[in-house]
């Protein structure tokens, strides 16, 4: 009997194990990011809504929701996926995965699928919580769901690469804390790039997170600093690049068989 193209049972086993790990640490995985984002909304959205100019979103709180959602998603997607593959490497369980009848597709479906699912659950909870604090609308709901899923997938893949590369918990936390979070704060989370004076506006346009925040903001308020096609193209390009890097990692066994 020929082996199926994709071992769905093996992929689901990895997926279920990773998802259950998140539910076992529900405070750190879900509640903590939701509480942090809610505090940002209360402080910057509700408290400052009467002191900010009209930014085309109805209120300042509605304007910053996409940026805060992106801030949480980038950090959590990367951290969940990187920790998910790092722990099997750290404990040696990765050899069981490599020797099992599963290929690259099954491993990615399992690990990346679980990280994306956790990010989507987190995004849904944040949006529901935000609706209690801020009155907002989503201009393009379907595009918002698609875009959020693409960003979650892209940065889960990036987190997987990070988890393979890291040789210690310090490196595992370094990229999300010291690179992604600052870039997101400087990427238009709390302000439109168009209000920045030169040369800061030109400098901000070098930041790739600017385009991701802009794309998500367009799906919410139908207004952004850059066309949605540019943001979508950069997201898909980054996702394709991560897939290529992961394919090379599995082909060469870099850091997986060491």
Q: If you had to describe this structure to a student in words, what would you say it looks like?
A:
It is built from 10 helices and no strands. Helix 3 (60-91) packs parallel to helix 6, helix 6 packs antiparallel against helix 9 and helix 9 (208-221) crosses helix 10. The protein has 258 residues and is mainly α. The chain is globular, with a radius of gyration of 19 Å. It has one domain (8-252). It has helices at 8-24, 26-46, 60-91, 94-99, 104-133, 141-165, 169-185, 200-204, 208-221, 228-252. The longest helix has 32 residues, at 60-91. Helix content is 74%, strand content 0%.
Tally of DSSP helical segments: 10
Helix content: over 70%
Q: Report the C-alpha radius of gyration, rounded.
A: 19 Å
Strand residue content: under 5%
- Uncertain stretches: none
Oligomeric state, counting identical vs distinct chains: single chain
Number of strands: 0
- The best one-word shape is globular
The end-to-end distance, rounded to whole angstroms, is 33 Å
Structural class: mainly alpha
Supply the number of structural domains: 1
Instruction: Report mean pLDDT, rounded to a whole number.
Output: 86
Strand count, sense and barrel status of the largest sheet are: none
Name the helix and strand elements from N-terminus to C-terminus, one letter apiece: HHHHHHHHHH
Note the topology.
Layout: H1 8-24, H2 26-46, H3 60-91, H4 94-99, H5 104-133, H6 141-165, H7 169-185, H8 200-204, H9 208-221, H10 228-252
Provide a short characterization of the protein structure:
This protein is mostly helical and 258 residues long.
